[in-house]
Design a protein that fits this description.
The complex is a heterodimer of chains A (about 450) and B (about 100). Chain A is α/β, with parallel strands linked by helices and about 450 residues long. Chain A contains 17 helices and six strands. Chain A has two domains: about 190 residues, no CATH class; about 170 residues, TPP-binding domain (Rossmann fold, 3-Layer(aba) Sandwich). Chain A has a six-stranded parallel sheet. In chain A, strand 2, helix 14 and strand 3 form a beta-alpha-beta unit. In chain A, helix 1 runs antiparallel to helix 2, helix 5 packs parallel to helix 7 and helix 11 packs across helix 17. The longest helix of chain A has 29 residues. Chain A is elongated and about 80 Å long. Chain B is mainly alpha-helical. Chain B has a domain of about 40 residues. The termini of chain B are far apart. The relative contact order of chain B is 0.12. Classes of the chains: A alpha/beta (about 450), B mainly alpha (about 100). The interface between A and B is large, with 120 and 90 residues.
């Protein structure tokens, strides 16, 4: 029986790998996800068949309740709320890993024996990392859902306290095998939950893509560790797959901000207002819907740069309408996507896909940057740091060195913003004061709607 | 140390390399669905949770195991459904089929 089960696990693992392979191309990605889901189903079915099943009623009840809540919440959620949904599900996985390890420890102590080190060590690792991933993801969820302030919250000596807590927890984990007790296991779990909270709280909103990718990697590694605890190969393979892919994504994200992963995690970036001092503030040039309409309607090429402000205002449909309207007038409309725009890796792509913007209209930073010199109008909607020329020119700026979209090279830049109030991190953005920049104030949704009607009226 | 440990480590290391080389080739346009899909794949924890529920005895162990199963089920079901919803939306413009997709 266990041979059949292991064969099924192998099929499942192959389906996971092929599924991820298919995710490399937008045309086959949906099939890839489906293949992975089929693999999961096979693994679950053969786990149930291959074991001497106890607690059947409980098992069914819990499984059905979990499945219904999971399906309902993922169907009901708005596309703009996708980052926090992914964070929440990730946290559930982390919690599950910690509980699996705890359950195994209870089992072993109930039998009066403690497992050997090859199972005890990954179990303790699960309690530590799984719990951190659990509470860290919940905090990320709360921040993204704006149920708690999204900015970086830091107190003096926070890194010291976190490092101290981590060292204490690791020491505790090392001590536990010498004197196994469920009380100590619980202390380890609760301490790790607290560490997860204080580890994510100081991370600011714009750094969320990195943190979400990292927590994803954590849960992946925790799943692999649970595989070592239970001596289960499919958990090990799938967990390792996710752990390493999550790590890569984390590195890609922090590289896109030209910051090391340590800097993202420990600098509490944006908790203090940074005075750069060197950038000269000039005059801004406010504009209105009519002027923007004229500029866009008679342009040859328009590039739209979306940012988190677009997601907040839920203005993706208006973006798509603007693209359609201008395209019908023969304007070449493109979207320029910065790798860390928004709150999770690729956030803007999903948002625009929801509004039916075809993905071949979306351009990555490296592909679009050479094009700005030949662009008539750039429309920046709710983006700020990713178009800040200080990142290129001002060594004193906190974001100096971060690769940006060179929108200032276009003939005209129109920046849509709610007000001149300092954005995330309070970093000055000299783009707003340039001669070729016009400020188009207003909420993204309202501003785009008035722009749309202005184009229809003025230039019909 | 049990006999299977080396074999398990062997699987682990190979899977790490596989994951590494798979993901380096994913274009940024798919980063969100990719993360969401791998998020669902670590929902494989549901297999582990099932195993601990099967063998759970005693109130406290049953509660802990059931909690593990509940959380893992949320992770795996929600993860796959959310990813599917995202990918459903990705489409190419009908007029420009010839243009190379990025």
């Amino acid at each position: 029986m266990s041979n059949i089960r292991d064969a099924a696990y192998m099929v499942a693992a192959i389906l996971f790998i092929v599924g991820v392979m298919r995710l490399r191309n937008p045309a086959t990605a949906r099939m890839g996800n489906l293949l992975a889901a089929i693999g999961m189903l096979i693994a679950v079915v053969f786990t149930v068949i291959g074991a001497s099943v106890g607690n059947v009623m409980l098992l069914l009840a819990v499984f059905i309740v979990g499945a219904v809540i999971g399906t309902y919440s993922s169907r009901a959620v708005k596309m703009t709320a996708m980052p926090q949904m992914v964070a929440a599900f990730n946290g559930m996985g982390g919690g599950a890993a910690a509980m699996i390890a705890l359950s195994e420890a209870l089992q072993a102590l109930g039998h009066g024996s403690y497992p050997g080190l090859s199972q005890a060590v990954p179990g303790l690792f699960d309690m530590l990392v799984g719990s951190i991933s659990f509470s860290g993801s919940i905090i990320a969820f709360l921040k993204l859902q704006e149920w708690m302030p999204g900015r970086a919250i830091a107190f003096k000596g926070q890194n010291g306290v976190n490092a101290g807590l981590l060292i204490l927890l690791v020491l505790l984990a090392i001590y536990i095998p010498f004197s196994p007790s469920i009380t100590l296991d619980w202390i380890l779990i609760v301490g790790s939950v607290i560490l997860g909270v204080s580890f994510v709280v100081p991370v600011g909103g714009a750094d969320m893509p990195v943190i979400i990718a990292l927590l994803n990697a954590f849960t992946g590694i925790a799943a692999a560790a649970a595989g070592f605890v239970l001596q289960n190969d499919v958990l090990i393979v799938a967990g390792a797959l996710v752990g390493s892919s999550g790590t890569i994504l984390t590195l890609i994200m922090s590289r896109a901000m030209n910051r090391s992963i340590f800097n993202v995690l420990f600098s509490a970036f944006g908790s203090k207002v940074t005075a750069t001092g060197t950038s000269e503030r000039g005059e801004i040039h406010p504009t209105n819907a009519e002027e923007v309409a004229m500029l866009c309607a008679y342009a040859q090429r328009v590039v739209i740069v979306p940012g988190y402000g677009l997601a907040v205002a839920r203005a993706q449909q208006e973006c798509k309408d603007l693209m359609d309207l201008l395209t019908s007038r023969g304007v070449d409309v493109r979207f320029a996507i910065h790798p860390v725009a928004g709150r999770m890796p690729g956030h803007m792509n999903v948002l625009l896909a929801e509004a039916n913007v075809p993905y071949d209209r979306l351009y990555d930073m490296d592909d679009i940057n050479p094009e700005f010199q030949r662009t008539d109008v750039v429309l920046v909607i709710g983006a700020n740091d990713v178009v800040n020329p200080d990142a290129r020119e001002n060594p004193g700026s906190p974001i100096y060195g971060m690769p940006i979209l060179n929108v200032d090279q276009a003939k005209t830049v129109i920046v849509n913003k709610r007000s001149m109030a300092a954005g995330f991190a309070g970093i000055d953005n000299p783009l707003f004061f340039k001669q070729n920049t016009k400020m188009f104030f207003g909420d993204a949704k309202g501003a785009l709607q008035s722009l749309l009607s202005a184009i229809k009226e003025e230039v019909a | 140390m049990h006999a299977n440990l080396l074999q398990e480590l062997f699987f682990f290391v190979l899977a790490v390399f596989t994951g590494w080389s798979l993901i380096t080739k994913v274009p940024p346009v798919l980063h969100t669905p990719l993360m969401s899909a791998t998020n669902a794949i670590h929902g494989v924890l549901v297999v582990g949770a099932l195993i601990v529920v099967f063998t759970a005895s005693g109130t406290s162990q049953i509660i802990v195991a059931a909690l593990a199963l509940f959380l893992a089920t949320l992770n795996v079901v929600g993860g796959f459904v959310v990813t599917d919803r995202m990918l459903e939306m990705f489409r190419k413009s009908p007029t420009e089929k010839g243009q190379a997709a990025k």
